[in-house]
Structure formats: C-alpha cells, structure tokens
Design a protein that fits this description.
single chain, mainly alpha, three-stranded antiparallel beta sheet, 7 helices, 3 strands
Length: 142
C-alpha cells in the first residue's frame, strides 16, 4: 500500500528533521529559473505548522511572480522592438535602401515588433493578423 500526501503537506518534504519546500518550476516562470526543473528551498523548520506557514508564503510569492511575469515570447518581442527602434525612421522612408531583413530575422514575433514600430500597429492586431493568440492590453504596452 502506498502512502499519499495530505493536501496540508503539498510541496513539503521532510529531510532529516527539517521541512523542505519542493515543487516543479511553473511553466510561466521557467525563463526565471534556467536549467532547473524544481524549486527546492530549506524552510529551516522542524514544526509542520511553521513549515506550512512558510510554504504558503512562498506559494503566494510565486503566484505574484506568475501574474507579473512576461512569457518568453513577450521578452523576445521586447528585444526585437529595441532592435528595430534605431532604424524606424529609415525603414519608414520611401527612398531608403534599408529593408526588414537588414534589421531583424523573419519570424512572427519579429514581424509583430516591426509592424508596431514602423506602422504603429498595436501588438494584438499584428498577432491576430498572423493567427496567433491575443495579448492582453496591459501586457501589450512597451
């Protein structure tokens, strides 16, 4: 018969006489924990009640990080925007010999950044045009 953890012991492991917080890195935060699949933190507590309180605080901090975290695609988009900014005026000019390919690579995220900077097109419109998911307006601001 296998032993099961009770919900009150979720993300907790007893290592010798000390409780340890142990959980998988949430997908939304993988870019903040490169090369890690799990988060392991010693709670430095031998009491399960004190460990639960500290665990709940850590879960709250991770939840706040997830709400405020940008996806890896959003970070990539912002990098492309910064890459295009110095060339915006030259790209807008009709007589310019500078082209899209001279500035950024050809992919959907780079194209959305290009369209935002050169044509003033909002990101959610560019992504919708390309058949990608819509980005909430509060995350679309650069």
């Amino acid at each position: 018969m296998t032993s099961r953890k009770t919900p009150s012991e979720g993300y907790l492991k007893l290592h010798h006489d000390t409780w340890v917080y142990f959980r998988r890195v949430p997908t939304a935060l993988k870019h903040l924990y490169p090369g890690k699949s799990h988060i392991t933190i010693s709670l430095k507590r031998s009491s399960i009640k004190a460990a639960r309180i500290k665990r709940d605080r850590l879960n709250g901090e991770l939840a706040a990080q997830m709400q405020g975290a940008y996806s890896a695609e959003r970070i990539e988009f912002k990098q492309y925007v910064e890459q295009v900014k110095p060339y915006t005026e030259a790209l807008k000019a009709e007589e310019s010999t500078l082209f899209y390919d001279d500035v950024i690579p050809r992919n959907d995220i780079a194209k959305a950044a290009y369209r935002q900077e050169v044509y003033g097109e909002p990101i959610w419109t560019a992504l919708k045009r390309m058949g990608l998911q819509r980005v909430p307006k509060d995350q679309a601001a650069v």
